[in-house]
Amino acid sequence: MTAPNKDSEWFRERCESGCQICGTKLYGKNNGIEWSHLVNDGAGGDNKEVNCLALCPNCAYTLDYVLKPAIYKALNEFTNGEVPDNWENGEGRVKL
Q1: What span, in angstroms and rounded, lies between the C-alpha atoms of 70 and 26?
Q2: CA–CA distance from 87 to each of 21, 33, 41, 90, 96 (Å)?
Q3: Tens digit of pLDDT at every position of the chain (96 positions)
Q4: What is the pLDDT, as a whole number, of residue 3?
Q5: Are 45 and 51 in contact (CB under 8 A)?
Q6: Is residue 70 a contact partner of residue 92, using CB atoms and an 8 Å limit?
Q7: What residues does each domain of the chain span?
Q8: pLDDT at position 61, please?
Q9: C-alpha–C-alpha distance, residues 37 and 55, integer Å
Q10: How far apart are CA 81 and CA 3, in angstroms?
Q11: pTM given for the model
């Protein structure tokens, strides 16, 4: 899967902000940020903004090899593969 259009405003803004999970900014092009897709192209994903996260290498690895498998297992075991409605707004977390 190719990266999103690097000339788009949202691409540049996400890279400037650093990793969307931990906030890390690394040296190098795009602050060392990698693009992680929530749904890969083989499963019907694309390069739209809603499907992409700007992550540092550590968080990208954690998303792909720890979080996605854990979420997959939990959704299948507890909700028959359906995403809980309360996930849309952060599962009821208090906004600071």
Answers
A1: 27
A2: 16, 25, 23, 5, 18
A3: 555 555 567 777 877 888 999 988 887 777 778 888 888 888 888 888 888 888 999 999 999 999 999 988 988 888 888 887 777 776 655 555
A4: 53
A5: yes
A6: no
A7: 9-84
A8: 93
A9: 10
A10: 28
A11: 0.74
Dmax over CA atoms of the chain, in Å, equals 42
CA–CA separation, 32 and 27 (whole Å) = 6
Length of the chain: 96
Q: Identify residue 63 by its one-letter amino acid code.
A: L
Q: Which residue has the tokens 């890969």?
A: 40
Using an 8 Å Cβ cutoff, are 43 and 25 in contact?
Answer: no
Q: Does domain 9-84 have CATH number 1.10.30.50?
A: yes
- Would the CA dihedral through 41, 47, 50, 52 be positive or negative? positive
Q: Provide the pLDDT for residue 21.
A: 92
Retrieve residue 11's tokens: 């691409």
